[in-house]
Amino acid sequence: MDTFTPTPISKVKRHPERGAYDRDTVYAILDAGLVCHVGYALGDQPLVTPTIHWREADRLYWHGSAASRMLETLAAGVKACVTVTIVDGLVVARSAFTHSMNYRSAMVFGTARLLETREAKLQALQHLIDRLYPGRWANLRAPLEKEIKATSVIAMPIAEASAKIRKGPPLDYDYDMGEKVWGGVIPLALTPGAPVADPKNLPGIAMPEMFARYALPR
Amino acid sequence: MDTFTPTPISKVKRHPERGAYDRDTVYAILDAGLVCHVGYALGDQPLVTPTIHWREADRLYWHGSAASRMLETLAAGVKACVTVTIVDGLVVARSAFTHSMNYRSAMVFGTARLLETREAKLQALQHLIDRLYPGRWANLRAPLEKEIKATSVIAMPIAEASAKIRKGPPLDYDYDMGEKVWGGVIPLALTPGAPVADPKNLPGIAMPEMFARYALPR
User: Among A181, A192, A212, B106, which residue has the least CB neighbours within 10 Å?
Assistant: First the structure.
């Protein structure tokens, strides 16, 4: 199945022309986003927790302390909604109400499951490290059993999903095009700065080239 | 009251030393974040919607179409959790499990209310525009009645809140400090690029200085 079927929960209602349901579009946003916001409910109390995520095939992953309330609640089988939002720009328009933002967001729905085996957890965590820092896992010491035990990993099969994307210039009304007001877009992007070496680094340890010109996953 | 009282819902359990409950800290994160993630539940189905927000005193604001399901649901008085997350950097460590991120996040809890009067809505929307583009509201044409009617504005009194902040270098174990592996931080920030003028701008309309060297709210 290459496209998710929109339901009343996932269908983009406002600006439906900005909605998309194909896996390629949804997954590209999940993969380009550095953090997600995990939504779940404890009774009638919603909670939204930010965390780093990664994806493999049709599953979304995140992790945390084995003692985490979020992971414990989700592992019990409650529904989750996980949203990834990438801000691409501010849209400056000719009237107050046509100001907007350019963005890509993906909302995915499902029921989370804890990875049970040591091997599944290790493989998933390797994917997390290597998504951000290709090849780094192999250059680190082996994980300790206590580290593996203290870490829970969630895998959520993506049951349903939608994307919403706005791009391009302001969309002003014809009757405003004569306003003597500048319109345009201020692009925004999460941008790496110059790495800051830990003062505790051993003498002679050089910064790997990957960090000197770090590029976020896309 | 200068500090929120942590409850089982808002208390930072994992890494409690990273938690903060004073208004100054929480509000500084809300004010520096460009978008928030609004969490609410439709029955047992959680939903997490990204949107732009702003704050005045002890209220968090966001807006949308008067036809929005999110706003309609929230206006009916269901509980909301709104989270603002600012990513400050990637923390590269000496072992896989000590890799981390630097971030500032704020979770605020409350029950949303729709602004009822035309005047309250207009004043709030002016604050939104002027938060991002100081002084711009006064240079735009007056809002049309149909625009005001089509827009709903939420004001949520902040009943409870917490912040969580990680900063600084990797926190590796003493027994890993001899690993011949580079540790450090790759700073990350949402950064404005060169503005892109709308090709439909009138001839002779200059880009305001504010956009040429745009600075996000802090």
Answer: A212
Taking the CA of residue B155 and the nearest CA in chain A, the distance in Å comes to 18
Instruction: With a cut of 80, say whether residue B1 has pLDDT above it.
Output: no
Q: What type of residue sits at position A29?
A: I
**Under 8 Å CB-to-CB from B9, ≥6 apart: which residues?**
A42, A45, A47, B109, B160
CATH class belonging to A16-212: mainly beta
Please, are residues A99 and A183 in contact by the beta-carbon 8 Å criterion? no
The tokens of A73 are what? 């609640």
Q: Does any CB of chain B come closer than 8 Å to the CB of residue A146?
A: no
Whole-prediction pTM value?
0.97
Whether residue A137 is predicted with pLDDT greater than 90 in this model: the reply is yes
Domain ranges of chain B: 16-212
Q: Which residues of A touch B90 (CB under 8 A)?
A: 132, 192, 214
Q: B198: how many CB neighbours lie within 10 A of its CB?
A: 22
- Does residue B139 sit at the A interface (CB-CB below 8 Å)? yes
ipTM of the complex: 0.96
Q: What would the DSSP string read from start to end of chain A?
A: --BPPP-TTT---SSGGGEE-BHHHHHHHHHH-SEEEEEEEETTEEEEEEEEEEEETTEEEEEEETT-HHHHHHHTT-EEEEEEEEEEEEEE-SSGGG-EEEEEEEEEEEE-EE--SHHHHHHHHHHHHHHHSTT-GGGSPPPPHHHHHHEEEEEEE--EEEEEEE-SS----GGGTTSS---EEEEEEEEE---EE-TTSPTT-PPPHHHHT-----
Rounded to whole angstroms, the Cα distance separating A27 from A60 reads 10
Does residue B66 belong to the interface with chain A, where contact is any CB pair within 8 Å? no
Per-residue pLDDT of B155-208, as tens digits, reads 999 999 999 999 999 999 999 999 999 999 999 999 999 999 999 999 999 999
